[in-house]
Every structure is written in C-alpha cells, then in structure tokens.
C-alpha cells in the first residue's frame, strides 16, 4: 500500500473519530447552551438532534470542498474517469469516516434514529467509494518476442477511479442542512405555518431539487460520454457495477424523497394561504 493511500485511510479514521466526538461531546454541550429547548427534548429526540447536528456540519464541510473541486480541479474535470484524484480522495475519505460513524450510531441507537433507507444509502455510497479510494488503474503492456505475442497487466498504486463522478455525488450534501433544520423547527414547536418554517421549507425543496434532481441530466450525460472509451474499459467490472448500481440506487431514493418534500412543501404553502385568508376575513368582520 503506497504512502498516499495510507494517508487517505488515516483521514477516514480521523474523520470517524472526529464525528463520534462531535456527536457524543460537542453537540450536546453546544446545543444545551444555544438552544434552551434542547434540554426539554426526550432522550430519543436528543440523540436525533445530535445526529442531525453532526450531519449538518459534515454536509457544509464536504459540500464546499466538493464545489471547489468542481470549479478549480482541471485534472478531474478533463478526465472524469482517471483524472488526478488527490483532492477527491481527501473529500471522499472525510465522507467515508462520517458514513461509517453514522452507520454505527444508527445501529446502536436504532430505536431512536434507525432507518432502513439511510442504511441502504450509506452502504451503497461506501460500496462505490471503495473503488475511488483503494482501487488501482490497470495498464496493459503488449509486445512481441521472436516467437510469440505477450500481454502483461500491471497496476498503478493508489490510482483511484471515477473521481469526477464520486465528487459530483457529494453536491447532494448541500440539501442536508435545510432538511435537518426542518426537523429542528418541528421538535422545538415551531408551527408549520410560521415564517421561519415556511422559508426553510421552500429553500429545502428548491435546493434539494437543484443538487439532487436537476443535476441528473448533467451527471448521466457525462457518464454516457465516457461509455465505451478506453478509459471506461480500464475500469474493472466491479468498479463499473458499483458506479452504475450505486448511482441508480441513490437517485431512485432521491426521487422518492423529492416527491415527499414537494408534497409537504405544497401542503404547508396551501395551509399558510388559507390561514392568511381566514385572518383577513376575520379582520374585515371585526
């Protein structure tokens, strides 16, 4: 194992430990001081609160890093399959540590935060990220001797595959803070028709659509553009399977979640309009 791969594994371990520390120590301490309502929550609600706080921190960190790579990492953007994956590997290493940490917490606190869809989501992501972090690029060397043709396959150490696509998926993290904030408002007793809740709900639906649904044509058109190329066939069968299967699996869940979010946002806006109309009528009557 080369030195850089060892560094990435160390980043994943440090990420895991950091997010565990944030969940068990930092979030409860900070939340109890900036939000008096935290101490009034049940034990299960406090567990979910801490889980969502850590989720938000991870989403902001990884999302900004992802956006930087998409805008400024020319190597990854020019060669989406085998471009220099250095920055992507660091970002994916952070996310891998977080996903393993969150999976551990989900299983340990299953009664409070257990969700089979999140388990499927995390496992599908980890399956795909394995190929980004640890897989090696095959190079086929061909030639002739005096009597026969020879073919030899070698591997480049530490060369992760599909860096552009792995990083692109992390754009979805930008929707996480709004989703978590909706839950925070709910457990703190904010009415669904309150201005903060409505504003967050509309922003949540808009951001979720932009970073998870609207980007699908861009993602899959780039996937189709590399299909059948030499770079594509250098990806192992397992890597191609992980790439395609995890993408489809995650996007099916994204569509399901978008449907629920859109319906919820529509109901809240309708309720707000009815409440506003009733208030105006009562004011005229008085």
Describe how the helices and strands are arranged.
Blueprint lengths: L2 H32 L8 H30 L1 H5 L7 H23 L1 H4 L2 H19 L2 E8 L4 E8 L6 H7 L6 H12 L7 H19 L2 H11 L3 H5 L2 H49 L1
Antiparallel strand pairs: 1-2
Question: Could you provide a short overview of the structure?
Answer:
The chain is mostly helical and 286 residues long. It is 76% helix and 6% strand. Helix 2 packs antiparallel against helix 4, helix 4 (86-108) packs across helix 7 (163-169) and helix 9 packs antiparallel against helix 12 (237-285).
* Cα gyration radius (Å): 23 Å
Largest sheet: 2 strands, antiparallel
How many E-type strands?
2
The chain-level mean pLDDT equals 86
Strand order of the largest sheet: 1-2
Structural class: mainly alpha
The helix count comes to 12
Share of β-strand residues: 5-15%
Shape category: globular
Report on the structure:
- The protein is built from 12 helices and 2 strands.
- The model is unreliable at 138-158 (pLDDT under 50).
- Strands 1-2 form a two-stranded antiparallel sheet.
- The protein has helices at 3-34, 43-72, 74-78, 86-108, 110-113, 116-134, 163-169, 176-187, 195-213, 216-226, 230-234, 237-285, and strands at residues 137-144, 149-156.
- Strand 1 and strand 2 form a beta hairpin.
- The protein is 76% helix and 6% strand.
- By secondary structure, the chain is mainly alpha-helical.
- The chain starts with a helix and ends with a helix.
């Amino acid at each position: 194992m080369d030195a850089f791969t060892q560094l990435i594994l160390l980043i994943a371990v440090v990420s895991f430990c950091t997010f565990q520390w944030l969940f068990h120590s930092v979030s409860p301490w900070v939340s109890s001081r900036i939000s008096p309502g935290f101490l009034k929550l049940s034990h299960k609600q406090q567990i979910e609160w801490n889980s969502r706080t850590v989720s938000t921190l991870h989403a902001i960190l990884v999302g900004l890093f992802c956006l930087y790579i998409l805008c400024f990492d020319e190597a990854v953007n020019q060669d989406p399959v085998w471009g220099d994956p250095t920055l992507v590997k660091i970002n994916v290493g952070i996310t891998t540590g977080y996903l393993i940490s969150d999976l551990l917490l989900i299983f340990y606190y299953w009664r409070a935060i257990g969700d089979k869809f999140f388990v499927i989501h995390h496992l599908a992501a980890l399956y795909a990220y394995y190929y980004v972090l640890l897989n090696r690029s095959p190079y086929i060397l061909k030639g002739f001797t005096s009597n026969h043709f020879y073919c030899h396959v070698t591997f480049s150490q530490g060369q992760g595959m599909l860096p552009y696509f792995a990083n692109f998926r992390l754009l979805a993290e930008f929707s996480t803070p709004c989703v978590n904030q909706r839950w925070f408002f709910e457990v703190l007793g904010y009415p669904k028709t309150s201005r903060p809740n409505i504003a967050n709900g509309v922003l949540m639906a808009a951001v979720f659509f932009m970073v998870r649904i609207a980007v699908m044509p861009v993602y899959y058109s780039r996937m189709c553009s590399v299909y059948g190329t030499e770079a594509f066939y250098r990806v192992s069968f397992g890597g191609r399977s992980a790439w395609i299967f995890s993408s489809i699996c995650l996007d099916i869940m994204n569509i399901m979640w978008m449907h629920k979010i859109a319906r919820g946002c529509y109901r809240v806006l309708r309720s707000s309009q009815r409440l506003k109309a009733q208030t105006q009528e009562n004011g005229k009557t008085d």
